[in-house]
Amino acid sequence: MAELADTVNRANEASLHQIRYVGEWHSHPPRASRMPSIIDLAQVAWLRRELAQEGLPAVMAIAADHDQFTFLLADAADAGSADR
User: Fold this and answer.
1) Residue 49, phi then psi, degrees to nearest 5
2) From the CB of residue 68, how many other CB atoms can be counted at a distance below 10 Å?
3) Cβ atoms 78, 61 nearer than 8 A
């Protein structure tokens, strides 16, 4: 996840802080569940903590077979207590 933070920071600096990063999207392989994996949940928790500093929510979208999607939204207000 450190590489992700570096990439986000570079994009933020390159845009003179005009572009905001709020989340991730990805697809799960055919026949896999659309539900978030342990890795997905850990990434959303990390995003929530990082973005809470700016008062922003974290968002993740997961695409799966048969036009199924899952959206995770982690409110910045919950960042201090949810991961304990």
Assistant:
1) -65, -45
2) 12
3) no
Alpha-carbon span 71 to 51, nearest angstrom: 17
Strands (E), 1-84: 23-27, 58-64, 68-74
CB 84 within 8 A of CB 49: no
Taking a C-beta distance cutoff of 8 angstroms, is the pair 22, 56 a contact?
yes
Question: Over the stretch 35-57, which tens digit does the pLDDT of each residue have?
Answer: 999 999 999 999 899 888 888 88
Name the average pLDDT for the chain: 83
| Spatial separation of the C-alpha atoms in residues 28 and 34, rounded to whole Å | 7
The identity of residue 22, as a single letter, is V
